[in-house]
Amino acid sequence: MGIDIILSYLIYFSKYLLVSLFLYLFGRSFFLILQSLSNKYTFIGLDIFFTKSNIIYPIFGFFFLGNTLLILNFFLPLKSYIVYLICFAIILLNLLETNFEKKVNYFSLVGFIAIPMILLISTYDTNFHYDAGYYHLGTQNWLRESNIILGFVNIFWPYGVGSIYEYVSSFFWIDKSLQSLHFINLIFISSFFSFCFYHSIYLKNSKLKYVTHFLLVYSFIDNFGISGGRNGFIYIEGITAFDNAVGIIFYFVSIFSLVRIKYEKYEPIELVSLFTLFVLAIQLKISSALVSILFLKYLYSFIKSREIKLKNIFSLFSLNIFFIFGWLLKNYLTSGCLIFPINLTCKNNFS
Asked: Is the CB of residue 272 less than 8 Å from the CB of residue 256?
């Protein structure tokens, strides 16, 4: 019995590593493309807001994969082998820049091995979220079986929401158990705790050390709060739920904006990284638009600093702007609203 449990756990871990590695390489490809578009700046291997970039590469990979799938879904169902070929071709862009960090240290062991191994224990008792059967799995199945559906919202109104999370999830229907959908959520949580470990323990004299210490103390105290805790801190949700991902991205955009506003040092890679995370937050859940207050303050300070010309900012943003246009067009064709379900953005002129 014990051997069976160990073997099943090792299978879970190997699957998790494959999904995590795929998103990591996809995120690295994203920065390689941005680097080629800017034709001026180097992005690979640089720290992002005092943080090792490989900690959050999987999150950028999630963004890039989700938006790539969104664009492809205008023409193809997402289970098409052509979609998978295109995505694997994008990963091969990493061969253009093979300067990977080869040094293995205790941070690598903790951040990329130990933390995921602990989180993966949840695989044994995590079930589907109650919204999975309500609309999440239905949305993902439609995406897999069909290209974009005009008036998708008329089939069932929650289909009009169409979070970017649904596109990535539909891509990872690897087996009938759909455990890989749980791994996506764990990748966000793992990146978050790797970030906390990096700044609270590993990196000496980190400018985010005390903020991270406070966050970890709060996470401990929250376990003994009202009704047993879980009053706002991250917890492992049921499969297909993505509130964790929203909260983590919201936190990253907030803390990264504040730390650069405070220290007044502006880098091109951080500008495009923060803009990417900001767009991702809104694509995950429209209520995340609240974080635009901090992002716009950061953007204003960046432009005011004159560290980079305005035309260069647009070149850095060009890929994301293309994705935003695709996102808004998708919303309009499927729901009649640029941002569903905000009435001010709706124009019901479809038959």
From this structure: no
Tokens encoding 265: 């040092």
| Distance (Å, whole) CA 180 – CA 72 | 21
Which residue, among 92, 28, 100, has the nearest Cα to 63 in the 3D structure? 28
Rounded distance between C-alpha atoms, residue 262 and residue 211, angstroms: 13
Average pLDDT, stretch 9-25? Answer: 91
Kindly indicate the confidence band of residue 312, based on its pLDDT and cuts at 50, 70 and 90.
Answer: confident
Contact 210, 217 (CB under 8 A): no
Burial class, 268, CB count within 10 angstroms (exposed 0-12 / middle 13-18 / buried 19+): buried
Q: Pick left, alpha or beta for residue 180 (phi over 0 → left; psi -120 to 50 → alpha; otherwise beta).
A: alpha
In this predicted model, what pLDDT tens digit does every residue of 183-229 receive, in sequence order?
A: 999 999 999 999 988 888 888 878 888 888 888 888 878 777 666 66
